Amino acid sequence: MSAPSSPKVWTVLELLKWTTEHFASKGIDTARLDAELLLAHALETDRLKLYVEFEKPVLEDERARFRDLVKRRATDRVPVSQLLGEREFWSLLFKVTSDVLTPRPETETLVEAALARLADPERAWRLLDIGTGSGAIALSLARERPQAAVTATDISSAALQIARANADELHVGDRVRFLEGSLFEPVEGEQFDLIVSNPPYLAGSARQTLPPELAHEPDEALFGGPDGYEVLRPLAVGVIEHLTSGGHVLVEIDPGQARSLAEWFAEAGLVEVETLRDLAGRPRGVAARRS
Ligand SMILES: C[S@@+](CC[C@H](N)C(=O)[O-])C[C@H]1O[C@@H](n2cnc3c(N)ncnc32)[C@H](O)[C@@H]1O
């Protein structure tokens, strides 16, 4: 099949087939899904509707839009979320740009575990999300616990702007306070019923081995210094004084970091230290409690 820039009339199905093969040949694992999402975006429709429009010819201007998206995906390895400008997380839609980490499905493990600890849905819980990025965790919790007062922090002012826009879009802007600063700096002297964080935890030394898509996400969202612990360690050591008595902390980690984090929590005096596992059984977080 010739490339979709040729003058022939292309149908939806032909474009999908060509693009899927093209993406696969570039080593993109989710080739068919990516092709469908990008074509739906170029045609201003949704992905499932493509299935009833397989034989429909694609107009030249739609194809030009699609070609540009395909090139940025295949050649520049821009993540699909950034090409679409959005990503679903916890069944909510979040605006996503290169200023924030694209929310990942594994982070839903943390939201689920947090909600299990916020048993009374009507209580006015005081919640803190450190390193909120797009606001994925903080805003999902705000939606699920309508009386909660949520604080969301980040060292990146650009990220906080996106998180604020998402809070307004999700109608929780009046219950979420956004503060700029590192770790506990912006909440000095304050205590919370639950503190959650998905901090940057990749080791800088692993940079060369990571998928090329990560180059489009902010360094400060991904890398926790040379060994990956530059943010995790002070977070683990300092969290206890910001928890109310009985308050919970939940932190996302790389599977290999669970043991170190659990030890630091215990050394700091936290109790009920527990590993959180994803659906595949991998350790994805560590939770603990102030007695
Ligand atoms: C892995 S991303 C998580 C984003 C979002 N919470 C999520 O789960 O999708 C880490 C976030 O922490 C922020 N960050 C990095 N270092 C920080 C620090 N020392 N204090 C506060 N936030 C930090 C980054 O800017 C980034 O937005």
List keywords for this structure.
9 strands; single chain; elongated; 291 residues; alpha/beta; binds S-adenosylmethionine
Characterization of the model:
The mean pLDDT is 96. The N and C termini lie far apart (66 Å). It is elongated, with a radius of gyration of 21 Å. The longest helix is centred in the N-terminal third of the chain and has 15 residues, at 60-74. The chain is α/β, with parallel strands linked by helices and 291 residues long. The strands form 2 sheets. The chain has a 7-stranded mixed sheet, sandwiched between helices. Strands 1-2 form a two-stranded antiparallel ribbon. It has helices at residues 12-25, 31-42, 60-74, 80-84, 108-117, 136-144, 157-169, 219-222, 232-238, 258-267; strands at residues 86-89, 92-95, 126-130, 149-154, 176-180, 192-197, 243-252, 271-277, 283-289. Helix 1 packs across helix 2 (31-42), helix 5 (108-117) packs parallel to helix 6 (136-144) and helix 9 (232-238) packs parallel to helix 10 (258-267). It binds S-adenosylmethionine. S-adenosylmethionine binds at residues 101, 103, 107, 130-134, 136-137, 153-156, 159, 182-183, 198-200, 220-221, 231. S-adenosylmethionine binds next to helix 6, strand 4 and helix 8.
Write a brief structural summary.
With 291 residues, the protein is an alpha/beta fold. The protein is 34% helix and 19% strand.
